[in-house]
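Question thread 4412

I'm putting together a teaching handout and wanted feedback from people who do this every day. The idea is simple: show students a protein as raw sequence, then show them the structure tokens that encode its fold, then repeat with a second protein so they can compare. Below is the first pair exactly as I plan to print it.
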Amino acid sequence: MNRKQYLIFVIVLAVGGAALIITNYIWHYFGENADVYPVIIVLLLYMFLKYKITAPMQMFTTKFSMLVDYDLEVEAAVAMSEKAFKDAPTKSIQAIYQTYYGMSLYYAGRYADAVKILNTVELRRLNVVYHGLIFAFICYASYEADDQVTFHQTLERLKNILVQVPNKYQSFIGGYIEILDVIDENGEAPLDKYKEVIEKHFNREDGYISTKLIYNYRLGIYYSRLGDELEADKCFAFVIANGKNHHTAIQSQKRFKGLVKVEDFVVPAQTPETVETQTPGTPTPELTEGQEPQKPDDETPQK
């Protein structure tokens, strides 16, 4: 359902509801409880409208997760998110899709575009937890674009909103801050702390190749900082061999020294044992102020 269809349905619902209320006086003659019929009909129509909005969002988030986490079809995720963003029926739904659009641009390695899109999301329409998500991805994108000013300014904004985040999501946002603090090349985090944090958040088996890409990419940077170019190249070769057009593969190409053969690190394709209809990382469809979303996958800290 796009914005035009949504507005038409709302107008029809409003006019139809008014008409039912007016004719209620006529319906009253058919029985003592006839006056509840208009209310029931309007309620059913409203529930139908809500379903027409939320059902596509559920399907979208599931497909988005599969595209960026498993299939690594990042450009397809960009195209799907852009279309959903432009066709969104309401401003609140549009803010949700715009967040996904910005994230997809980041996954595709279009960092400047990602920052631009994420910086223009109407934050007042989203839960504060998603403010943290947006700021985190702006940090990720600006880091890869070597925009240290935007990185540090946004990281400070992320830290400042932590106190506003509900207790159940403190560790979620805190995880982003922990990761961003150690990847900050101008920061004071020691290298052993960097590796500890990357191991903690990304060295996990969740069935998605994207997690392995991120882990090896971040670990490759660790070995580069340590001065161990051979180990760094092994990590970058793994990402290049298996990452398709994922942004980690693009960045690994830039850092790769050619000390190992990329083809030696190809991993056979695997099928996840279980694919849920909505993955644990899929946000709930209504991300308006006051509602609490679930966390998204990929590039996300492990609780």
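The second pair follows. I'd like the answer to focus on this one:
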Amino acid sequence: MTLFESGSQYREKATIWRIFSLLPLFSFLAGGHVWRWFAINIPMDLGTGGRFTSDIDIIARLSNRPRSPDWFYRTWEVKVSLLGRDGKARSLKRGKTGKIMKQLRAYREFGAPEVSLLDIVLCEAGCLAANPFPTRDLFEAVATKLSDLQDEHFGYHLLPFEHERDADGDGGLRTFDLGDWSGRRDYPMLGRPDFHMLQSAVTNVDEGFMRLAQRLDEFFEAAAERPAKSLHQIIFCRVCRQLQLIRMRYDEACPDCGADLIAQS
């Protein structure tokens, strides 16, 4: 079964997992900066007992140059929509923009300094070859979000990709060359080749977020040195209640308790 065919509750986390399994699908989030680490699905109140009870989908610790002492943080809320081979879009979150904005505001209220929406378009096998991208309804959905996000100075990324098929299983990935959009006058707002449409404003870092970020920093630096350590991701196992440093390209189970990390809600 491909991600496109998976259940909605499982799909979002599994899609994030797949993105961080392949360097070209997640490195663009760094925006050309050096990253020390990425952390995935981290509870806001990890070990603090505070009032924030939701998760941050993605946190990145970034720098403008290697070995620089000046690090900064970015966060993303992730949403996944579907685009079939017939060109029909599903799960576009129409009518749910208000809920998405509320989630982004919660990141900012928690003290995250840069907050963006990562909108992933999961395409059915054969979709990108059979249809022009973006489709009209997808473009209209994106345009609606852009207006609201821009008003409140949140960032916005769009990432379309598809699974190919190998018998009944997942046979790989294909992305769309967004550079081809630059000359398309009918979709002027989607002409960014790096999927990046809005840059988040930088706001003050509050105590709650900094406490969480410092805990992640300390965990990462204390973890055993491994080859390509920066290509490992920090995750939180909800079964053993521990942070783990894994390589999502290869690992789907908690190294301590063996629990399925993707299936955890």
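Top answer:
Good format. For the second protein you could add a caption like this: Residues 136-151 form the longest helix (16 residues). Residues 222 and 246 are 14 Å apart (CA to CA).
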